Amino acid sequence: MAIPKKLLEFLKQQDANYKLVAHPRTGSSMETAEQAHISGDALAKGVVVREDSEFLLVVVPSDYHIELESLRKMLDRDVILAVEGELGSLFPDCELGAVPPMGEPYGLTTIWDPNTTLGQEERVYFEAGDHEYLVSVSGRQFHELMAHAERGEFSHHV
């Protein structure tokens, strides 16, 4: 599949210097990190939460858990995790469950926790829109790609 059109256009608009990294097909972000031989700290995962019919994209490293109560307090909203069946319409050019951590090209507000390892990694990897490729960018480039995302502390290392 490679990179879906919306994500590819976003990377081009941002003049991103990226590489594609192939890995065996996986079903979870931790398995992806293992199969791609990268640290879970360096793999950004996108998790979709919602309040009623409004969706938000939350970004943390693959070996972090979102503290929903902390996120709710930060947002002052009663968000819950979206179910996988809701993701197809939000990311129509991606395989189900292969959510890139860039909400901007999909019209989603994005929130990330820069106090995690993603704020310190030399290279950051993220889903390319399928379960067989990752996009690799420098840590600095990742910060640039996340420039319009909201920030807050709402996660912890597993």
TrEMBL record:
GO terms for molecular function: aminoacyl-tRNA deacylase activity. CDD domains: YbaK_like. InterPro entries: YbaK/aa-tRNA-synt-asso_dom_sf, YbaK/aa-tRNA-synth-assoc-dom. Residues 23-143 form the YbaK/aminoacyl-tRNA synthetase-associated domain. It comes from the Bacteria. Gene3D superfamilies: YbaK/aminoacyl-tRNA synthetase-associated domain. This is YbaK/aminoacyl-tRNA synthetase-associated domain-containing protein.
